[in-house]
Amino acid sequence: MASYSTLAEWEAAQGGGDGAEVLFDLDCAALGAADWKGEAAVTIGGKSWTLYNSSDCGAFGPDGSTGIVCTPTTGKYWHVGAAACPAMFCPLSTLDASVSDTARYTMIMQIPSWSVDQQGATGYGQLMIGWWTTGNLNRYYSAMFGPAPSNNLFAFEGYNTWYTNGSATTERSFAVDLGRGGANLCYTHTAATTDYASMTARFGMGNNGTTVGSLGSASVLLPSAAAAGAYFSGRQAAGTVIYTVSRITVVKWPT
Q1: What beta strand segments (E) does 84-225 contain?
Q2: Among 204, 87, 197, 98, which Cα is nearest to 142's?
């Protein structure tokens, strides 16, 4: 696989090289400041993104300088099992008019710095990047991946199955594949980059079973039913738990 140091180089190589199609690329730091609290949907990058549970947070929306920011409500737990935390997502069919269940897709999210992570009585936070069904945003269907409590990388897979992959407080870019049949692979990089070829593989998610653990009540997620996005999970009791997304990129690989 060829390696490109910038998104522009990657786009210039379309029709040759990897042939990847960039479906969506948003520099969130360039967005004007806006308050998304209480909103059900927003248009960003020319596409309609659904906001979930957007009222239940301290702040939600672009800050006009670093990216899209979300902070927990003081004293309130956010959790994904009951879909009680804020989220932003966009159906893959919105991003790709010719969405194909035989294609492979990758979403890359970047953060300006490792998110403030507190675990225990004072608070905690988890930035969850992944793919879900468009009609039921919970963790029962596909990968969720990102920074977790105690400064670990983590992945959810299936019903309440959790894995961690060591201490990593310098990661800036997170990529989640959605492969044919719902198989997932997760990657990271310590730089803010869309250079997918240079990323480090962290987790693999099977489409009908896993090498470790069980998918429980999970279902296979096909691209035509998938939504790309992020959950902002946590609890704010003391200190500051802040999550900022500085760039969102979605690409489609040739079949």
Answers
A1: 87-91, 104-110, 123-133, 144-148, 152-156, 162-167, 173-178, 184-189, 200-205
A2: 204
Q: What is the pLDDT of residues 124-140, one digit of tens each?
A: 667 888 887 765 555 54
pTM for the full predicted model: 0.84
30-89: per-residue pLDDT in tens? Answer: 999 999 999 999 999 999 999 988 888 888 999 999 999 988 666 555 655 555 678 899
In this structure, which long-range contacts are made by residues 56-63, counting pairs with CB atoms below 8 Å and at least 24 apart in sequence? Answer: 56/84, 56/85, 56/86, 57/86, 57/232, 58/236, 59/35, 60/35, 60/36, 60/86, 60/232, 61/33, 61/34, 61/35, 61/36, 61/37, 62/28, 62/31, 62/32, 62/33, 62/34, 63/33, 63/244
Q: What is the DSSP letter of 77?
A: B
